[in-house]
Amino acid sequence: MAARSFLFVLGSSRAGGNTETLARIAAEQLPPDTEQRWLALRDHPLPDFEDLRHPERRHVQPSGNAETLLRATLEATDVVIASPLYWYSVSSVTKRYLDHWSGWLETPGADFRRRMAGKNLWGVTALADEDPAVAEPLAGTLRISAEYLGMRWGGVLLGNGSKPGDVLADTAAVTRAKTFFS
Ligand SMILES: Cc1cc2nc3c(=O)[nH]c(=O)nc-3n(C[C@H](O)[C@H](O)[C@H](O)COP(=O)(O)O)c2cc1C
């Protein structure tokens, strides 16, 4: 059995963007016995999230893409949220994935809260702005979500770029990527 198992959740609305490029550079440095699974949310669209907690709990067993993502999330030791910076936070499909975590907390048999505790949560993002401080809302969202679930927060890897490939010119980000998971 592999010691670690990384799930890369890709939240860009386009394939081959800067966020994915940066995440793949970081992943290249993972030890060979580390499992990697890559799931693009644009290829696994989740249904609109509906809050069914109140007044009485109604449970919907996840199916289709939701079941795939739930299983992949639970099976990972490390969850990497690789979302571009959209309006200073995570992309809408990434936010929807996180909203579904609230549903999965209630899913009978999933034991979501207990099984998420102790996993590592990491963030990777690309942004067009030269000022990395504008990504603080994204970093805060992920860091505090990790705390809420008792996950270990690994931090966020930031890269600069607008069009696909730009991030490769951000040499500081590429250098950081090479040790990000170590
Ligand atoms: C809907 C949308 C919102 C964006 N919001 C921001 C933003 O708030 N700050 C920023 O610096 N760049 C913003 N950008 C630029 C992207 O973060 C940038 O192009 C990034 O490289 C996209 O990542 P990707 O190539 O992985 O898709 C936005 C782009 C889009 C399409």
Describe the structure.
The protein has 182 residues and is an alpha/beta fold. The protein has one domain: Rossmann fold (3-Layer(aba) Sandwich), CATH 3.40.50.360. 34% of the residues lie in helices and 19% in strands. The chain is built from six helices and five strands, in the order E-H-E-H-E-H-H-E-H-E-H. A five-stranded parallel β-sheet has the order 2-1-3-4-5, with helices on both faces. Helix 5 links the parallel strand 4 and strand 5 (152-160). Helix 1 (18-28) packs across helix 6 (171-177). The radius of gyration is 16 Å and the shape is globular. It starts with a strand and ends in a 5-residue tail after the last helix. The structure holds flavin mononucleotide. Flavin mononucleotide binds at residues 12, 14, 17-20, 84-88, 126-129, 134, 161-162, 164.
